């Protein structure tokens, strides 16, 4: 029987990335005696449902709550309620903007802003022989924190490199299909594109599909984000150049291990860095092997 | 237009009113007047423009040209509200009740009594409505929902609603079409009372004998034009019919020959349903026209619906052409060559937004096009054929049914069932809202069907109609068959006596 | 002149819709240099063809006075099932098995919709909304959010290939459109669909098998969604449970712009082509013009309202 | 006791049985079911938890959905209105222009009033637009409100300007969504027995129950829903009535927007999107017919509670989300079919 009961609240219940995180968390929990129940918003990334899920977890009197907040600020009142009920709160993937940093036991992950900065910088570096970089960004969902953070990071990198010209950006809603359609239009519109940064792997593959269908493979580089198995495989297959390995499974198991340690009375660092490496054709196989395991 | 002596100055005057619908000149220079305290009857063939004229008078439509004077002052109604304010009330030919509201709410819809703070005064609403209903001897409760009422009761609610306006002019567009003798008498009493109070009434009906009971003057419309106004006391029925139809109409019994065959078309034994019908046994032979008489609510329609499988029977035996129909459904009946013309054309008979010709082939689809592929040419030919035979007045059978006048719509329903070439047909109020001319045609048509060996069951509240065409008449009361008249030598009075329960069978 | 009005009027709706389409098209040609290129027109047609397929199915349901909110979920579930089947053998045989499975499951979903509407007497909006939840839930359950991808070349041909230079999705959509249009206009089934949509009670009295017609319609709608799912999966070269969240909405909008009435019994499925084209043109045009994503949402909203208004403003409500 | 009074009592009982909607039994049945499965379910704090979740989510929106459905429409713009009005509230409370900064410093209560008024005004404006178009044209409400939803989303995104707006240091405002009166101490936690959002929800429901039952407007909404043509021919101003339905719907949804923003102390353009379908589901579960003219605000509230109870209950027993989705779909279908079949038996 499990020693501790934990509620895990992710941003949604549907997209691939969060599934990797959740299944790793549950698996890790089983190994070390923590019962993990996931309770993420059903379809949309919904701050209010996360709030409700927190309240339900409080009523269940779980031993800890792990959350990747959809809205870093919006979740704060709910976190305060949890603390009032004596339930420790852990964040993963995305930080919460609590008033006192010690309200949160630990944050597991690197943060989307840094990730965005890193991958953009890496891709610009790969194009070091160009005098001008014509850039396309395929956004996620501009109402959500994840997109905003990643974009902020990418913009910071753009600001440092004056070769970069941002041609266009459109919302791909993190979906392969949307990205494919958007890229088809961009290919018609722009005769010179050097780099496509997609905010997740699915959209990067969608962009690749459009580019290869138009026979313009090799003209431009593509980067993804997340380091999901498909993304890594696409890097290996040379379809996309790089992806940022968030190590979502690592975040999942990391946060559960932190919970266990904390509840066992051990001390836990306030920031556990997981992931954040840029995956390139050179190291992608390694990451993929680790995932398969 | 002929001049009749007028004792009083006309109260309402319609002058040279024209109204055109796409492709149809519904009103063509109509002039008409109405005096105070008069019952002015309006008659005319289906599609003559009666309802249109009334809708102009009540603000539903606006005339294209021409004037309306009320009390010597020119009026223009932009909507029904304006007409209500001018104290003109109307009972439409088609029902206009809100099913999910109570009777009282319907009667005072748009004029609910409110207390000083704008809060509804339900007590007063119900009491006022009940008072009107009671004055009509309806037995309807003001707090019942309208959707639970039958057609006849709904008609009475319409009447109550019109009365509630306390208007100076009351328009009734075929109020008796769904009523039976009892209710009609109540209606007439009401009309006399109103008249005594100085209310002027415009009364539209296809039942000419009613004209003589209540009318003062009578105006005949034909093809959107007035063809004459007469004092009722001076107009003979033959003259009126000639004015309306332009020819003589035979008003005698039309069935002379006995075409009844031995073999059974329909046989029903010991039929019950869960609510109303009790132990019903009837039969119809091929070549025979059988009538069912009864008061409203006696269950005639239920009986027909149960035979046709629209309502479920709880027990009983039904056979078509000697073969038992174990579980009936409309589809099965149609396949076994039986048809049912329902009483409520708007709700049960027609797809209003579809073309006339499509409606006509609806019931016969699988028979006409067994391969499942529709041939437009055939569809058109069939429709044209019935348009001619039934004299459906329309410029084109491609038009939607909703553009037709009430009577012509009825003919389309009829055509739909004739097109199935069924060997057994149930007609529920087949001539509801149909003019005398067309009615005669329909009667001949039914007679003709019987001559060709088809079995016919006619349900009608119009007793003269039954007496004209039926070979045999059943009388129903409260869900039972209370009497069977083996031949047509009966009088209306005898039938009513059984139907109303005066005589114990 | 007035005499011809009666004949012209029913065609006026189509005419004004066509005008709206032409106006949008021409303005895009003028404003955006890349719009009128052959490559882009093919893009537009290909995207339209997917919207169109789904809209045809929904239009059928709207013709019988219903609606189908479950098509997006149906596409998701069938696409996942294909992924699962394909995984088994990764061969042409498993592909054929997968396709068969997809069609079978989509028919099943249609049957469930039809059952809820006919026998449980549920309003179609609610029934298909509930079924949508169930079906999508199943899709998530089956995959736990994972993505299946990298299908065989012959499967990818269905959504990505070309025949005589015409992309396959366009060919499939046109074939479907012709079949359904023929069915509606020239077969007794089509007549029944209109009859049931126009007045269900009267259809029943006419001996038309109302229940059968309704169920068949919902099955057809789902089946078409299943076919669209095949094309979609093949085009994306991936099966994921999240796809199609907005398909029902888009399809309904296309059908409504195309003149299919929500009350049933009114409208022609050919009009839906215009509806689908208008929607695609607008979103494609905005992308080409570089309209900010934040504004795109709203502009598409305005277009949806306006383009329906175009053919209805002739008959503005009086009272 | 004589047999007659016994019989009449039995009849009254039967009468009441038929008057009580099936959903009430269902609601209690569900609560019982979850109580059996989880011992933490039937506690004061969890019950208040469910009520708060309902009142700050689907509860109020359901009322607006019900109004639209009752007049034979649907209002898909409600989610957009929630997002936009919530965003406007946040924007005004945090707007960095001299006028507002000054008010914020001198009289925060006044600023709060401005923000709330502006949010409701925005809801009213969108509702008006819906109403105007719907009353004046024959465009189906599905399309108009879908378009308006997208327009709301756009404005909300544009006002947000690419971030979420955070509100700090306005405890009075946070109190709307998070606070409550009459707190009791249970263990370490203090449980509010009268949450503000619940009070707002109840006031709205009571007010609209009154409106639907006791005013002409209410009767006219039912009349339009029952038979629009007849209503018009009876001289009812159907244009105005329809307009008011959507106007009020927009204003009601704006309350949810305010509560949302206050509850999360921040506003993202994403908030509230999708809530319109929950609202429709709740109204229909409560007994509203898509063809119009049925159900009451009270029944709608029961429908909303059922949805909230169901979601919370599934969470409490730890059911996985995919299965939850399936279960909710099944329950929706089951509830409404029980209700329709029961009604049909009575009428047919
Ligand atoms: N809304 C409409 N649109 C088009 N044509 C119409 C419309 N209403 C009536 N008509 C046409 O106007 C003519 C007159 O119709 P009206 O309803 O006034 O006839 P009526 O005398 O009342 O006939 P009935 O005795 O059958 O009720 C008919 O030819 C009918 O087809
Ligand atoms: N007492 C009643 N209360 C409510 N509804 C009734 C009552 N009696 C009859 N009805 C309804 O009124 C309608 C008309 O009754 P029914 O059709 O059985 O009689 P009918 O003899 O065919 O009369 P009609 O002249 O209307 O054709 C039916 O739908 C029936 O359900
Ligand atoms: Mg008439
Ligand atoms: Mg009858």
Architecture overview:
The complex is a heterotetramer of chains A (293), B (505), C (319) and D (348). Chain A contains ten helices and twelve strands. Chain A is α/β, with parallel strands linked by helices. Chain A is elongated, with a radius of gyration of 20 Å. Chain B is α/β, with parallel strands linked by helices and 505 residues long. In chain B, strand 7 (169-173), helix 6 and strand 8 form a beta-alpha-beta unit. Chain B starts with 9 loop residues before the first strand and ends in a 5-residue tail after the last helix. Chain B has four domains: 1-87 and 168-247, P-loop containing nucleotide triphosphate hydrolases (Rossmann fold, 3-Layer(aba) Sandwich), CATH 3.40.50.300; 96-161, no CATH class; 253-337 and 422-505, P-loop containing nucleotide triphosphate hydrolases (Rossmann fold); 353-419, no CATH class. The radius of gyration of chain B is 23 Å and the shape is globular. Chain D contains 16 helices and four strands. In chain D, strand 2 (180-186) and strand 3 (189-195) form a beta hairpin. Chains in contact: A-C, A-D, B-C, B-D, C-D. Chains C and D meet through helix 5, helix 11 and helix 13 of C and helix 7, helix 8, helix 14 and helix 16 of D. The structure holds adenosine-5'-triphosphate (ATP) (2 copies) and magnesium ion (MG) (2 copies).
Mean pLDDT over the full residue set of chain A = 90
The overall average pLDDT of chain C, rounded, is 87
Quickly count the helices of chain C: 13
Distance from first to last alpha carbon of chain A = 25 Å
- SSE sequence of chain A, one letter per element: EHEHEHEEHEHEHEHEHEHEEH
Which regions of chain A are unreliable across 5 or more consecutive residues at pLDDT < 50? none
């Amino acid at each position: 029987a499990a020693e501790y009961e934990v509620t895990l609240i992710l941003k949604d219940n549907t997209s691939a990335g969060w599934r990797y995180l959740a299944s790793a968390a549950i698996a890790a929990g089983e190994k070390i005696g923590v019962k993990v129940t996931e309770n993420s918003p059903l379809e949309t990334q919904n701050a209010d449902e996360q709030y409700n899920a927190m309240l339900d977890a409080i009523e269940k009197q779980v031993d800890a709550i792990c959350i990747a907040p959809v809205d870093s600020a919006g979740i704060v009142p709910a976190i305060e309620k949890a603390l009032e009920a004596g339930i420790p709160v852990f964040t993963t993937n995305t930080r919460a903007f609590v008033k006192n940093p010690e309200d949160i036991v630990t944050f597991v992950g690197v943060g989307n802003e840094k990730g965005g900065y890193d991958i953009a910088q890496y891709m610009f570096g790969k194009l070091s022989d160009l005098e001008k970089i014509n850039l396309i960004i395929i956004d996620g969902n501009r109402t959500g924190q994840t997109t905003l953070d990643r974009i902020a990071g990418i913009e910071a990198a753009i600001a440092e490199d004056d070769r970069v010209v941002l041609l266009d950006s459109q919302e791909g809603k993190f979906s392969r299909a949307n990205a494919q359609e958007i890229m088809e239009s961009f290919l018609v519109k722009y005769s010179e594109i050097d780099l496509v940064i997609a905010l997740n792997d699915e959209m990067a593959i969608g962009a690749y599909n459009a580019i290869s269908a138009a026979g313009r493979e090799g003209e431009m580089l593509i980067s993804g984000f997340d380091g999901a198995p498909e993304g890594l495989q696409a890097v290996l297959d040379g379809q996309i150049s790089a992806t940022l390995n968030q190590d979502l499974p690592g975040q999942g198991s990391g946060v559960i291990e932190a919970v266990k340690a904390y509840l066992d009375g051990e001390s836990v660092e306030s920031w556990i860095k997981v992931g954040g490496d840029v995956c390139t054709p050179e190291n992608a196989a390694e990451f993929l092997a680790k995932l398969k395991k | 237009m002929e001049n009749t002596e007028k004792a009083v100055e006309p109260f309402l005057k319609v002058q040279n009113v024209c109204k055109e619908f796409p492709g149809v000149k519904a009103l063509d220079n109509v002039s008409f007047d109405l005096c105070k305290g008069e019952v002015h009857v309006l008659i005319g063939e289906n599609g003559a423009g009666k309802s249109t004229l009334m809708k102009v008078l009540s603000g539903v439509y606006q005339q294209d040209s021409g004037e309306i004077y009320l009390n010597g002052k020119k009026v223009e109604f932009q909507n029904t509200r304006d007409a209500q304010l001018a104290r003109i009330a109307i009972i439409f030919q088609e029902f206009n009740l809100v099913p999910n509201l109570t009777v009282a709410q319907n009667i005072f819809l748009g004029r609910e009594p409110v207390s000083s703070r704008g809060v509804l005064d339900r007590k007063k609403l119900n009491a006022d409505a009940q008072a009107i209903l009671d004055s009509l001897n309806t037995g309807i409760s003001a707090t019942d929902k309208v959707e639970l009422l039958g057609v006849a009761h709904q008609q009475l609610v319409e009447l109550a609603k019109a009365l509630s306006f306390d208007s100076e002019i009351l328009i009734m567009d075929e109020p008796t079409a769904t009523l039976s003798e009892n209710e009609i008498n109540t209606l007439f009493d009401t009309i006399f009372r109103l008249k005594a109070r100085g209310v002027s009434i415009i009364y539209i009906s296809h039942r000419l004998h009613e004209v003589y009971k209540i009318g003062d003057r009578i105006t005949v419309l034909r093809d959107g034009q007035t063809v004459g106004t007469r004092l009722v006391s001076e107009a003979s029925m033959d003259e009126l019919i000639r004015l309306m139809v332009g020819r003589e109409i035979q008003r005698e019994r039309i069935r002379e020959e006995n075409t009844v065959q031995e073999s059974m078309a329909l046989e029903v034994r010991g039929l019950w349903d869960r609510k109303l019908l009790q132990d019903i046994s009837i039969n119809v032979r091929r070549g025979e026209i059988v009538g069912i008489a009864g008061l409203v609510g006696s269950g005639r329609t239920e009986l027909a619906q149960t035979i046709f499988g629209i309502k479920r029977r709880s027990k009983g035996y039904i056979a078509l052409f000697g073969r038992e129909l174990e579980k009936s459904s409309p589809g099965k009946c149609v396949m076994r060559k039986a048809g049912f013309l329902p009483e409520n054309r708007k709700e049960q008979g027609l797809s209003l937004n579809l073309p006339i010709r499509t409606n006509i082939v609806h019931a016969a689809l699988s028979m006409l096009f067994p391969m499942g592929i529709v041939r437009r040419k055939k569809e058109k030919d069939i429709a044209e054929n019935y348009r001619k035979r039934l004299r459906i007045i329309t410029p084109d059978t491609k038009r939607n049914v909703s553009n037709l006048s009430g009577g012509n719509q009825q003919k389309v329903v009829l055509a739909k069932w004739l097109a199935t070439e069924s060997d057994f047909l149930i007609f529920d109020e087949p001539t509801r809202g149909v003019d005398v001319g067309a009615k005669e045609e329909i009667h001949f048509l039914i007679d003709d069907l019987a001559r060709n060996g088809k079995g016919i069951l006619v349900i009608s509240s119009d007793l003269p109609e039954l007496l004209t065409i039926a070979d045999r008449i059943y009388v129903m009361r409260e869900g039972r068959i209370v009497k069977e008249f083996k031949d047509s030598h009966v009088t209306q009075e005898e039938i009513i006596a059984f139907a109303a329960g005066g005589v114990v069978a | 002149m007035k005499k011809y009005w009666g004949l012209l009027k029913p065609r006026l709706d189509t005419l004004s819709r066509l005008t709206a389409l032409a106006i949008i098209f021409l303005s895009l040609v003028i404003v955006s240099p890349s719009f009128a290129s052959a490559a882009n027109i093919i893009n537009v047609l290909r995207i339209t063809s997917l919207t169109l397929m789904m809209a045809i199915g929904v239009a059928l349901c709207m013709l019988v006075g219903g609606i189908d909110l479950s098509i997006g979920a149906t596409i998701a579930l069938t696409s996942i099932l294909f992924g699962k089947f394909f995984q088994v053998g990764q061969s042409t045989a498993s592909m054929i098995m997968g396709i068969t499975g997809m069609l079978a499951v989509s028919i099943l979903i249609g049957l469930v919709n039809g059952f809820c509407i006919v026998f449980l007497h549920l309003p179609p909006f609610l029934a298909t909304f509930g079924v949508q939840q169930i079906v999508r839930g199943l899709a998530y359950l089956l995959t736990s959010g994972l993505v299946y991808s990298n299908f065989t070349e012959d499967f990818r041909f269905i959504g990505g290939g070309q025949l005589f230079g015409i992309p396959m999705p366009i060919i499939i959509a046109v074939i479907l459109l012709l079949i359904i249009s023929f069915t509606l206009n020239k077969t007794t089934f089509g007549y029944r669909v209109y009859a049931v949509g126009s007045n269900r009670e009267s259809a029943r009295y006419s001996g038309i098998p109302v229940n059968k017609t309704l169920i068949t319609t919902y099955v057809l709608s789902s089946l078409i969604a299943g076919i669209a799912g095949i094309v979609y999966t093949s085009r994306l070269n991936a099966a994921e449970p999240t796809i199609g969240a907005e398909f029902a909405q888009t399809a309904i909008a296309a059908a409504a712009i195309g003149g299919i009435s929500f009350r049933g019994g009114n409208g022609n499925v050919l009009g839906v082509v215009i509806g689908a084209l208008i929607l695609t043109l607008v979103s494609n045009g905005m992308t080409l013009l570089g309209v900010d994503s934040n504004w795109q949402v709203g502009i598409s909203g305005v277009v949806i309202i306006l383009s329906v208004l175009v053919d209805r403003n002739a008959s503005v409500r009086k009272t | 006791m004589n047999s007659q009074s016994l019989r009449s009592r039995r009849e009254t009982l039967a009468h009441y049985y038929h008057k009580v909607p099936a959903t009430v039994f269902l609601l209690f049945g569900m609560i019982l079911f979850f109580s059996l499965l989880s011992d933490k379910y039937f506690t004061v704090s969890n019950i208040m938890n469910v009520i708060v979740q309902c009142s700050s989510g689907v509860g109020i929106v359901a009322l607006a959905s019900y109004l639209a459905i009752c007049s034979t429409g649907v209002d898909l713009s409600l989610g957009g209105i929630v997002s936009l009005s919530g965003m406007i509230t946040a924007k005004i409370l945090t707007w960095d222009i001299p006028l507002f900064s000054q008010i914020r410093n001198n009289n925060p209560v006044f600023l709060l009033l401005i923000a709330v008024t502006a949010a409701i005004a925005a809801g009213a404006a969108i509702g008006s637009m819906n109403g105007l178009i719907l009353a004046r044209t024959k465009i189906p409400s599905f399309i108009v409100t879908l378009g308006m939803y997208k327009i709301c989303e756009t404005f909300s995104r544009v006002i947000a300007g690419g971030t979420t707006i955070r509100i700090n240091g306005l405890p009075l405002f946070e109190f709307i969504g998070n606070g409550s009166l009459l707190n009791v101490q249970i263990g370490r936690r203090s449980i509010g027995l009268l949450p503000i959002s619940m009070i707002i929800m109840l006031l709205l429901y009571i007010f609209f129950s009154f409106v639907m039952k006791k005013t002409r407007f209410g009767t006219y909404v039912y009349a339009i829903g029952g038979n629009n043509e007849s209503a018009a021919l009876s001289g009812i101003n159907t244009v105005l009535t329809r307009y008011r339905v959507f106007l009020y719907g927009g204003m009601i949804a704006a309350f949810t927007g305010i509560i949302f923003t206050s509850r999360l102390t921040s506003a993202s353009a994403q908030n509230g999107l999708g809530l319109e379908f929950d609202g429709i589901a709740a109204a229909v579960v409560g007994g509203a017919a898509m063809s119009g003219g049925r159900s009451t605000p009270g029944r709608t509230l029961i429908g909303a509670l059922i949805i909230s109870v169901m979601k919370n209950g599934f969470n409490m027993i730890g059911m996985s989300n995919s299965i939850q989705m399936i279960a909710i779909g099944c329950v929706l279908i089951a509830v409404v079919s029980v209700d329709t079949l029961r009604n049909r038996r009575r009428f047919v």
